[in-house]
Specification:
Distance between the termini: 30 Å
Strand content: 35-45%
Radius of gyration: 16 Å
Shape: globular
Helix content: 10-25%
Largest sheet: 6 strands, antiparallel
Order of helices and strands: HEEEEEEEEHEEHH
Strand order of the largest sheet: 3-4-5-6-7-8
């Protein structure tokens, strides 16, 4: 990817508060994701992923080739961190998960103890981050 295309992508990201991926000179795909301003963006050394950091306290890693979110992460000043993938699985600090992870079903808020055993899957999250096909680990995925 040449420098001019990278600059156009970074400008689009900062102006639109989204992550944008350029596939051709006339075509841009915009991937919404953060709930607040994006204040940092970086390409991986191999150019295959983009990391975006936001005022919403998350960092998200995106695939350049597909425009899809690979995973999101948060970290605390104390060193706790949590990662989650679009399929709903998460890994990281159990202490942080208990504080911030919950599920909303309509008007009902479901606490983590009701779904922790099913969705706390460090193996699936690690496989997704490595680029593996996670359908072999879990059923009923999109």
């Amino acid at each position: 990817m040449n420098k001019q295309i990278k600059r156009l992508i970074l400008i689009a990201i900062l102006c639109l508060n989204t992550v944008a991926f350029m596939y051709a000179a006339r075509e841009i795909k915009v991937q919404l994701g953060h709930s607040s301003w994006v204040n940092s963006v970086a390409f991986s050394p191999d150019g295959k992923t983009i990391a975006s950091g936001s005022r919403d306290t998350t960092m998200k890693v995106w695939s350049v080739s597909t425009g899809k979110l690979i995973y999101s992460t948060i970290a605390t000043p104390e060193g706790d961190s949590l990662r989650w993938i679009p399929e709903g699985y998460f890994s990281g600090s159990v202490k942080l998960a208990i504080k911030v992870v919950y599920m909303v079903d309509g008007m009902n808020i479901i606490s983590i103890d009701q779904f922790f055993d099913t969705y706390y899957r460090p193996d699936i999250v690690a496989a997704k981050i490595k680029g593996e096909d996670i359908s072999k680990y879990a059923t009923d995925l999109d």
